Amino acid sequence: MATWNVNSVKQRVPRLLPWLDQRQPDVVCLQETKLADDAFTALLGDALKERGYEVALFGEPQWNGVALLSRVGLEDVAVGVAGAPGFPHIEARAVAATCGGVRVHSLYVPNGREPESDHYKYKLEWLAALRDVLEAGPADALVCGDINIAPTDADLFDPEAYIGQTHVTEPERAALQAIEALGFHDVVRDRWPTERIFSYWDYRAGMFHRDLGMRIDLILASSSVAPRAKAAWIDRHARKGTGPSDHAPVIVDLDEAPDGDIGPVVPPPSSPGSKKKVRLPQAK
């Protein structure tokens, strides 16, 4: 299965469909689709059906939007996170369904923008509601998506560069740890505990080519599902070339690994990263 923030599915069609044909994932969670449901269906409905996918959607024009594609069943679809706040209205940030006996959540967690802002408080409240939903949910579950939190400093190219930024603050990490405390395992990090692994690189300042990224796209598996993981990796190749998303897909193979246990990042980073101090493009 895979999760991928495509940063506008309309712009990413030339990348998405060939990628589906290449990797052949059974379940795909997409985030930041930026399309209303009817527009998504008009754009991709036939192409996905031809490839054997059932589709669950929760979208909105221009912003946010999540999707769940499955070739192993799509049952009990639910949109949104029960009890989660809006900002001020409910945003299209979560869709869940049971796929092949596993409850799969495709999530686009609020960004938070700046620590202590209203957006930041919204993010923490949203994550608390998500934790409650997961605690009440089935034992067999996968939490997938753009979580917008780097779990530890090891998931950043340079922790000092992120001081004063969201995604790395203690309350955000504590909210993620509260979800993991329910028995969820970060399967990529469990498989590769000491490797340099990123899933997101800013478009600006050559961050991707210098391999100056962060790991904020996660797949968390419940304690009953995590032992089934045979491979876990980032498909960095999908971030290369013309018209990419600024995120790369995260792939976890359960039960069998068609590509083998091929490493944490495929292909390897093109650069080991800069030894010079780097200022984030968004830093004030």
From TrEMBL:
Pfam families: Exo_endo_phos (PF03372). PROSITE patterns: AP_NUCLEASE_F1_1, AP_NUCLEASE_F1_4. GO terms for biological process: DNA repair. Residues 274-284 have a biased composition (Basic residues). The record marks N148 as: Transition state stabilizer. Probably binds two magnesium or manganese ions per subunit. The record marks D217 as: Important for catalytic activity. NCBIfam families: exoDNase_III, xth. This is Exodeoxyribonuclease-3.
